[in-house]
Amino acid sequence: MTFVENLTLFVLAAFVGYEVITKIPTNLHTPLMSGANAISGITLLGSVVVAGSGSTTLATVLGFVAVVMATINVVGGYLVSHFMLAQFSRGGRD
Amino acid sequence: MTFVENLTLFVLAAFVGYEVITKIPTNLHTPLMSGANAISGITLLGSVVVAGSGSTTLATVLGFVAVVMATINVVGGYLVSHFMLAQFSRGGRD
Amino acid sequence: MAGVLGGLPEAVLQFTYLVAAVLFIQGLRDMTHPRTATRGNATSAGGMFLAVLVTVLWFEILSPVVLAAGLLVGGAVGVWLAVSVETTEMPQLVGLFNGFGGGASALVAGAELIDVLGTGTQLSVGLTTTAAIAGIIGSVTFWGSLVAAGKLHGVVGDSPVSPNAGHALKGLFLLLAVLAGLFLIVRPDIFGQPPVTPWLPSYWVLVAAASVLGVFLVVPIGGADMPVVIALLNSYSGLAAATTGFVLDNTVLIIAGTLVGASGLILTVIMCDSMNRSLRNVLFGGLGGETESEDMDEIYEGQITETSPEEVVMLMETTQRVVIVPGYGMAVAQAQHAVAELVGLLDENGVDVEFGIHPVAGRMPGHMNALLAEADVPYEKMRELEEVNPTFSQTDLVIVTGANDVVNPKANTDDSSPIAGMPVLNVSEARSVVVNKRSLSPGFSGIPNPLFAKDNASMLFGDAKESMQALVNHYKEETS
Amino acid sequence: MAGVLGGLPEAVLQFTYLVAAVLFIQGLRDMTHPRTATRGNATSAGGMFLAVLVTVLWFEILSPVVLAAGLLVGGAVGVWLAVSVETTEMPQLVGLFNGFGGGASALVAGAELIDVLGTGTQLSVGLTTTAAIAGIIGSVTFWGSLVAAGKLHGVVGDSPVSPNAGHALKGLFLLLAVLAGLFLIVRPDIFGQPPVTPWLPSYWVLVAAASVLGVFLVVPIGGADMPVVIALLNSYSGLAAATTGFVLDNTVLIIAGTLVGASGLILTVIMCDSMNRSLRNVLFGGLGGETESEDMDEIYEGQITETSPEEVVMLMETTQRVVIVPGYGMAVAQAQHAVAELVGLLDENGVDVEFGIHPVAGRMPGHMNALLAEADVPYEKMRELEEVNPTFSQTDLVIVTGANDVVNPKANTDDSSPIAGMPVLNVSEARSVVVNKRSLSPGFSGIPNPLFAKDNASMLFGDAKESMQALVNHYKEETS
Ligand SMILES: NC(=O)c1ccc[n+]([C@@H]2O[C@H](COP(=O)([O-])OP(=O)(O)OC[C@H]3O[C@@H](n4cnc5c(N)ncnc54)[C@H](OP(=O)(O)O)[C@@H]3O)[C@@H](O)[C@H]2O)c1
Ligand SMILES: NC(=O)c1ccc[n+]([C@@H]2O[C@H](COP(=O)([O-])OP(=O)(O)OC[C@H]3O[C@@H](n4cnc5c(N)ncnc54)[C@H](OP(=O)(O)O)[C@@H]3O)[C@@H](O)[C@H]2O)c1
Furthest-apart CA pair in chain C: how many Å? Predict the structure, then answer.
């Protein structure tokens, strides 16, 4: 894809993000923060490729550390939001 | 662009459209309808290319008719919404 | 291909298209509030202007005169139609515009096929497939919208064929169009000699079949359902533009087309929901306006109280709170200015006066709001159904003018009526109700209205504009 | 490159990424309501799983053991941290996770550069530019988040350098990082021998400089402003992912990264707005928690009424409506369960009891709601500022527990105070106010609170959990 095409995706995603996030009520902002944080672990995709296919030892080691860190971010982030939200759906029966 | 890349644009635009349109209040639905209708005249871009560069007479004639029709849609649509909305901003001073 | 700007890198064109797409989105976002909506419409128009301008400058224009003539003629006709048409005729005008957009898509697809053939290139499957889709949707949109606009304008009548025969005909022509499309894709030469004649017969067979289909689809639908049909066709024409964008790899066509597709679909669903009907029922359920031969006389017999402008003005003088419920009749009679004047007078005399506006009052969503805004009624006086319904019990007087179905209590009580389940304005909870219309004849849904026979209701027969003007005149006399 | 699925057309990978992107968006859309939010989180996690799975299966994995080990170790640590951490420590945990994400981005960019060099290819400008951006943002995010988490956890103190020296140091290291980035782009060989050593020194100089920058950026910011910092860094890490997506032409990285960027930015703006401060002021305004040596004694001297749990319970017995205002102290003391029990008892005895929740009570947006939900308080009992403020004049008793700034009337009256203009809960409009905290020491903003000296206010000194438990016990005795 060309740069402008990527930019188009970026712009559209920014509109979607803005419209959706501004609709989320304050009381869900803490789980949102940790959920969004988990999504930013999408960089795990890059880590996976680098760790798995690293041709030099150095790249493999860096990739390994990157995978560990990104996975902590993803797994921990989703779990923490899940725990918080589970409490909401217990408490909030409306 | 590949088909999937175009599809990605389509999906993102559909999300943007859904989020934005559902926020528009009922009393603006008539101007929205005519404004959206004007946007659908975007097909004018295709008509322009065909009418301007038609290599055969037949294609040029078809292109000419297409340009006329699409321009009516665009110009008329935006004007009609404009008239309706101008009334709103006169009447609605909140 | 190289036009005026042809020397620049392709990214410039792409980027300009992205800017246009952003302007469309921003324009729609500004439509979420009446204060910013005018600006939003201008923003969207700016996006369109930019996109057309860069296209004209970018591509090689072999026949600039043809192009300029097309733009001028189209622009002049568009301006003329927009300027000369009455507010009541807006629905059909929007329908007409929409049809032209669809027709243009169908023609562009055809011209593009001919152009490509003319250069001696093979027609690719991608090109023929999308051309077929754009051809079918575009032709259906063109003819469907024309019929819809004609019905709204009262120049096209109801279907002469029986519903079942109609369904069979629709199936037949759909099949024909699809077959022609398949031939176009698989064997573009089927009706012509190889090498294919530039007339490309199979494409025009497709267009012809889809055109007939468009007519047959819309003719059997009741006139009052036309706004739904137009919104749906608008959605289709957006999707046709998006489809074209897929073939041309044109981002702004995809994005703008999809936005319109979403808008049309959402409006369709909202309208169906507020009428409490399914889309299927609207499209294939036969005439919406069909009149049940129900025992109207029995319901109304001896129960109807008639009133006069004088009496209504006497009522008005002792009230604290008045709610006015306008309907389609106000649009037909162009009574909005008289109504606005009446409201202004009541307001001056310290009466708390508001409008109760049903979401499907009139013939388009927001129809009443647009008319009342035209007559300079302040935005905050127009109350929606949910806001106004709880206030009727504290209201002294309701004046219903040209509305019928939206105040029909049968929706709440009679499960078998065509409007069963539709939320209505419960005007009979007010102390007294005055209904202004020309006769006892039913509204769009064709059913009688027990409201007219209620003890606290009285009828003010007459054209809405004349009646409202009479109220204004008498009220002025009395209060001055 | 060919993995398990490598034989399939590229479109399959692209399409799966699109599905993952849709799942992320849908997950966020479900977050708009507590009822659907759990499902939304799961949907988003499903998208992540899908994206990772297809990536693992698609690309050639030379060292499957390394990859599997990394995923296992990371997963185990993530689960362990999430399970073992207290609700009060959530803010710092989220900060820590965010730092790890940023760090991973920086490492990936480095490893990618080394890999490309290893294949003997020239480093393209596009690659080095984005690598430099990802390296700077990633390193700043990693160290900044670590410092932020450390401050929230109380293990990192305040900056030892003066604000001006601090600004100079920030500028210096930013310059260093940018210079290293430029060298990486223009002359990747600058610190090594040509052909560049696989260690690629300029990239690591960049990482080192950006790391120091990250520390210096966050250390001078007051501990209580850390949530804003974490939200902003979260936005950064999203943008870093999107940047990487531009180089790799990876749609899901662009879309997901942009969503996170938008989310973090919006949360940052919302937090600043509800504290009535500019982002600039938060980031560069020096310590938020700095204590003015104001004349607290003068304000409080002889004006403070102390109360006891027994007295408060006596008050409670004659009230019809109680509002509870929780703050950061409730989180510190983990008092939410005791508070919830008290509310349950009041409810049973027919008292109308609600929570008044300020948008920035606690240390994260929605902090109080999350804690109270953990203690099974029904959603509809938690009222926001605008809802609850008009009701205080009809409220008999307000119990403030562990809150301070959010009930400080100075925000309304004193233009020079650091919280001037911040909307607060006007609790003193109620008949009586009981404030529960451990001392008269100030809250986060470091200013005294004239509320404590008001005639209708009395102080219930003590740890929030113990005090609330005492209220529960006495109330049970009295009412049984
Ligand atoms: N708004 C939308 O988007 C939309 C879309 C599709 C369908 N619809 C349907 O349209 C209907 C709208 O309800 P509605 O109550 O507004 O209208 P309605 O039920 O169609 O009734 C309109 C009434 O106005 C009266 N009228 C006509 N011309 C008049 C004139 N010159 N002066 C005074 N009265 C006149 C007619 O009675 P007389 O002949 O006795 O005067 C008629 O009963 C609903 O059934 C709705 O489902 C609406
Ligand atoms: N929510 C957010 O997103 C966010 C983000 C950044 C900043 N902030 C800031 O944080 C502040 C939040 O206001 P707030 O009223 O919730 O908190 P606060 O103003 O920080 O006051 C908390 C009070 O709780 C008391 N406390 C501490 N531990 C306690 C314990 N164990 N038991 C009982 N009381 C205890 C403290 O007094 P003692 O020491 O006397 O007990 C302190 O005065 C605002 O200034 C806001 O701007 C919030």
Answer: 86
A72 interface with D at CB cutoff 8 Å: yes
Cβ neighbors of D388 (< 8 A, separation 6 or more) are: D323, D354, D356, D357, D425
Pocket of ligand 2 (CB under 6 A): D 224-225, 227-228, 271, 275, 327-329, 332-333, 360-365, 367, 402-406, 437-439, 441, 443-445, 463-464
Distance CA D132, CA D129 (A): 5
User: Which sign does the torsion angle of CA C26, C31, C36, C37 carry?
Assistant: positive
Domain borders along chain B are: 29-87
The reply to whether A93 touches chain D by the CB within 8 Å rule is: yes
Ranges of chain D with pLDDT below 70 = 1-2, 6, 87, 159-161, 188-199, 285-298, 414-418
Q: Is C405 in the pocket of ligand 1 (CB under 6 A)?
A: yes
User: E strands within D186-327?
Assistant: 321-326
pLDDT tens across C156-196, in order? 877 666 777 888 899 999 999 999 999 888 876 655 554 55
Write the DSSP symbol of residue C394.
Answer: G
Q: Identify the structural domains of chain C with CATH numbers, from first to last.
A: 85-284 (no CATH), 293-479 (3.40.50.1220)
Asked if B4 has any chain D CB less than 8 Å from its own CB, the reply is yes
How far is residue D358's CA from residue A27's CA, in Å, rounded to a whole number? 10
From residue C143, how far is each of B47, C98, C150, C263 by CA, in Å?
19, 10, 10, 21
Subunits with at least 3 CB pairs below 8 A relative to chain A? B, C, D
C-beta of residue D51 within 8 angstroms of C-beta of residue D251: no
Is-catalytic flag, C405? yes
Closest approach of chain C CAs to the CA of A90, in angstroms?
A: 31
Q: Which DSSP state fits C290?
A: P
Q: How confident is the model at residue A57 (pLDDT cuts 50, 70, 90)?
A: confident
Q: How far is the CA of C295 from the centre of ligand 2 (A)?
A: 72
Pairing of strands C321-326, C352-357: parallel
Residue pair A28/D40 in contact by the 8 Å Cβ criterion: no
Tokens standing for residue C479: 């209060």
List active site positions of D: 405
